[in-house]
Every structure is written in C-alpha cells, then in structure tokens.
UniProtKB/TrEMBL annotation:
The keyword DNA-binding applies. InterPro entries: LysR-type_TF_proteobact-type, LysR_HTH_N, LysR_subst-bd, WH-like_DNA-bd_sf, WH_DNA-bd_sf. PROSITE patterns: HTH_LYSR. Transmembrane segments: none annotated. It holds the Pfam family LysR_substrate. This is LysR family transcriptional regulator. The keyword Transcription applies. Residues 1-59 form the HTH lysR-type domain. Keywords: DNA-binding, Transcription, Transcription regulation. CDD domains: PBP2_CrgA_like.
Length: 297
C-alpha cells in the first residue's frame, strides 16, 4: 500500500465531502480514490468514513485521524519545499481564510500583487466572519482581526488596527455629543460581537481607563454593517478605522471622544504549527507584513 497516496486521498475526501470530488481534484478516478481509502481503513482495522451514494463524512475515529493526517502531509510538503526552495519558485495551492470586510476592502489589491510576484501559485481565498478552524478546514493561513485567545496555533502579528468611536451628525444632533466615556451610558450603542471583552468598551484618556457597558441596540460580527447602521443615525459605534475612514472623510460619520482611545485590535496571520513552515506560507505572511505593516495597502 502507498501510505502517502492513501493519506492524501483520505484527506481530500474529507475536505471535499465526496469520493467523486476528491477524484476530480486529484485527477484520479472515483474507484482509485475509493481503493486508496479502503486500503488505509484495512491497514488500520478502523472505519474512517461514513459513506452514502453522494457524500462521505469522517467517523469519530476518522476525524481524529484526519487532523493528524493534515499535519503529517503539511510536514511532508514543507520538507519537500525546504530542500528545493532555492532552486524553484513556490507553486501549488495556497488556501487563505480572511474576514469579510478586510478581504473586500483591503486584501484584493494585495493579493493581485502577490500573484504577480509568484505566478506559479494558485490561491483559494475564503472570506468569512465565522471563526473557522484552520486545521479542520484545511487552511494554510487564516487572517484574523481580533484579540486572540491562547491556542495551539501559531499567530504572527501583521499590523495594529486602530478603532474610532463615531456616530452620524444626525444622531449627534438629536441626542447630543458625548464629551466623556461615562456619557455613553446615556446613548444607544452599536457593538461588535465576539471580542474577549464582550460588549464592554475600554477607553483610555488623560484621566485614566474607563470600562463602559453601553446600552446596545445592535450586536453584529461584521464592522461594515456597524458602519452602515451608524451612518443611518441608529447609534454610536466603535469601528475599525480602515472601515470608517471613507465615511469620516465624507462627513457621513463624525468621530467623538477624540481625547480617548480604544485599544487597537491586531491583524494576525494564524497557521498550524509544523516543523518546516511551507515556503508559500512564509512568503505570503512576509508579504503581508511588508505590505500592511509598512502602512501601504
């Protein structure tokens, strides 16, 4: 049995959800994929997949084996690239996951330049505001704008993401302009969900640190939605600066509490730990650090 080929076939079936799709992606017949997986199950004495006529999903044992297999194959690929990187440009598939707003507003031009620099790479970009699992979902790099919890994954800081407290001129005309963080308790807030601080806002000024639990009417995990609702005069929002910038420039939003600052979030590149970081992953992360960390982009 070709153990490595069987591992690749099994991982591809789990990722794609079917033998037929795995075969298409690997340019093999469905029966060849089935034989590889069958040989693997027979050698282990364990059923790895639940099968229907159109779908395949991992059993409990299969899911555990899949997570280990992804790491093993990543190490094999990285080891191959480690000894050939000086002789060849990076090639193959690079799977990237990024937040929706950052992806649509900032990542596109950067990706185009990266593709120009490394034309032999294929890039599959998945935009989502859900916290996808980089290992289980098979991503080489996951970009997150967040306050990261401790994790077995490796996270590299790319650039801080400042935030601004802002509201529409119409809202401020109707409800007044807050002059101190405590004034926010008398306003309606629009909040971003899934931060470690929950819906609390931390604002720091010359008079110290203020933790505010504002009364909120909207909690959402997409900052573009926060911006758009704030523009319509529905409340005060704490929004990443790059998302609010155009609205602040054209006057549809107005910054408030300018003497107080919220701690910035951070754009991280997150990836599974491996003994040999794949060349394509290292080059992509280095490119992002150079592009965004230098203030370009």
């Amino acid at each position: 049995m070709n153990k490595l080929a069987s591992l690749r076939a099994f991982v591809k079936v789990v990722e794609s959800g079917s033998f037929a799709e795995a075969g298409r992606q690997m340019r093999l017949s469905r029966s060849a994929i089935s034989k590889y997986v069958g040989d693997l199950e027979e050698s282990l004495g364990v059923q790895l997949l639940n099968r229907t006529t159109r779908h395949a999903s991992p059993t409990e044992n299969g899911q555990m084996y899949f997570e280990r297999a992804v790491v093993i194959l990543s190490d094999v690929d990285a080891a191959d690239q480690a000894v050939t990187q000086l002789q060849s440009a990076p090639r193959g598939l690079l799977r990237v996951n990024a937040p929706m707003s950052f992806g649509t507003m900032r990542l596109g031009p950067a990706l185009a330049d990266f593709m120009t620099k490394y034309p032999d790479l294929q890039i599959q970009l998945v935009l989502s505001d859900d916290l996808l699992d980089p290992v289980q979902d098979g991503f080489d790099v996951t970009l997150r704008i967040a306050e990261l919890e401790s994790s077995s994954l490796i996270a590299r800081k790319i650039v801080p993401v400042p935030r601004r407290v802002c509201a529409s001129p119409d809202y401020l005309k109707r409800h007044g302009t807050p002059l101190h963080p405590q004034d926010l308790r008398d306003h309606v807030s629009l909040t971003y969900g899934f931060l470690l601080t929950g819906n609390q806002w931390k604002l720091t000024g010359d008079d110290g640190v203020h933790w505010i639990q504002p009364a909120w009417s909207l909690c959402v995990n997409n900052a573009e939605v926060l911006r758009d609702v704030a523009v319509r005069g529905k409340g005060i929002a704490l929004i990443p600066e790059f998302i609010a910038a155009e609205a602040l420039k054209n006057g549809s939003l107005q910054a408030v509490l300018a003497n107080y600052s919220a701690p910035p979030l951070t754009l991280y590149a997150v990836y599974p730990p491996t003994r040999h970081l794949a060349v394509k992953v290292r080059l992509f992360i280095d490119f992002l650090v150079d592009r965004f960390g230098s203030g370009a982009g």
